Amino acid sequence: MKDLDIPNWTDIAEYGSTDRWSLKRWRWEFLRRREDLRQEFDLNAPSEYEGRLFEAEQEPNRYPYGVLKPSQPGFYILSTSITADSWEPLPNPRISDQPEAVLTMPPVGVTVLAHGEIVTDNPKEAVLKFDLRKPVRNQIAEAKKYLMEQQQAQIGGKVQFRKLLGKWLTYLRILDARTCGASWEKIAEVLSHEDQVDRTWVNKAHAAAVRLTMEFKI
Questions:
Q1: Number of neighbours of residue 53 by Cβ within 10 angstroms
Q2: CB of 87 within 8 A of CB of 79?
Q3: How far is CA 145 from CA 56, 73, 113, 150, in A?
Q4: What is the pLDDT of residues 132-190, one digit of tens each?
Q5: Half-sphere exposure for 6 (CA within 13 Å, toward CB)
Q6: Strands (E), the chain
Q7: How do residues 98-124 score in pLDDT, each as one tens digit?
Q8: From CA 145, how far away is CA 42, in angstroms rounded?
Q9: What's the CA gap between 208 and 218, in Å, rounded?
Q10: pTM of the predicted model as reported, rounded to 2 decimal places
């Protein structure tokens, strides 16, 4: 699948140093495996490129380093397919290693409540109130302590980014395997180092991977 810049899913080494990937990069790796985003990019990239060439002719200083081609890292179109009702840069999905500047990441975990919004009783969420008349640093320290205590009580331990890496890499490999036409049985055979490798487990992992391509959450 070299035309899609997809590694050989049977060789984990081909995915490189994933432990060094940022959250933005992880999100991008799931997003770029969506066929609808590839089609959207292919449809709109040529006209976007032509438009930028025209802008460069009219305003030579607008692109001091030249106009990037769609086949180059860093070129992007604006898409509303990634986040509903919001424009977001969409680089070329066939290029894995994109500049961080064109990768985006929605807020992770924190939601700002509107004034007067009702707080639901969800044991997996915590709502804190801060006093803007007092030093922020001390309040954040107390909030961190409280949140970690609640995470231990409600989730059973800290949710760490590093713990997700193994799952996410496995998810990417399963997505790539299915893109290559591998059967569920073949995937289970290759991923035999996992604790559970039957078809049911692979199906569930694939479903989780697809959800991450549509809505990246940790």
A1: 13
A2: yes
A3: 53, 41, 21, 9
A4: 888 888 888 888 888 888 777 876 766 665 667 779 999 999 999 999 999 999 999 89
A5: 21
A6: 76-83, 86-91
A7: 999 999 987 666 566 665 555 666 766
A8: 48
A9: 12
A10: 0.77
